[in-house]
Amino acid sequence: MMDWTDRFCRNFHRQFSSDARLYTEMLTTGALLHGDAARHLRFDASVEHPVALQLGGSDPEALARCAEMGEKAGYDEINLNCGCPSDRVQTGCFGAVLMKDADLVARCVQAMRGATSLPVTIKHRLGVDDLEGWDFIRGFVQTVADAGCEVFVVHARKAWLSGLSPKENREVPPLDYPTVYRLKEEFPQLTIAINGGIKTVAESERHLRHVDGVMLGREAYENPFVLAELQATLFDGEAEPLLDRYEILLRYLPFVQAELAAGTPLVRIARHVLGLYRSQPGGRAFRRVLSEKAHRPGAGIDVLHQAIAEVEKDDLDEAA
Description:
By secondary structure, this protein is an alpha/beta fold. Helices cover 48% and strands 11% of the residues. Helix 6 (102-115) runs parallel beside helix 7 (134-146).
């Protein structure tokens, strides 16, 4: 979710669910150690918890330093990305290519665990290029678990690093949910979460009969209201009423106003809101207003109000 789940996105998503664990976009060790670490690590501690810092890198010492930075910044978890197939991560020797060297991943985990008291977790695929099959993935998980990792978030398909684009790697390799279920059976002491192609509450409920957790990526971004449905259905405790989309947007507006006052351009925030009314009356008009006006110099909170007015207008037209 590089360039997607920034702090503006995470604050928006938190309005839908008080309990879902949010993950940062993957931040490379180079960006944190040699760039503006304070800007990259910034998050709203009053809203975003629980939130995990996802790191990209392959040098154990550098990852350890970044894990320590993440703990000091207030994150709840440090996650190592071993699943991203982007060209940018292959050239940097991190992401899915790391699965080719389980011993290196284990050393990275050991180094990070030595630098932080936070849980150190892994996000990975079922295989990479010609490395696939049960023996491979079982051996990878065993090696990394022996290094102290107890939580594995498994994208239930392999990655082809040559010949497929990042988008194709999210769609072309077939999903294999049963192998993820088998990992949980083989390693009952580990926390196994499943990811890949999951879109609905019903699908999430089916997976939770076999594994410990469900991660939604693109679907949560493109249809964020599913997070509200998950909150109302799956989390323990008192059942929460399902908020409507308008209420959720109203809850987000104070954050938007504060960011605008601090000089953040509206377009950096509004792009994350485009999916709020997906498949709903007025949704197309809502997206059109934001797409056409949010990028304009000086665009303010009135653009969001105009987008909402288009939805309300469509509702009135439909009622008539």
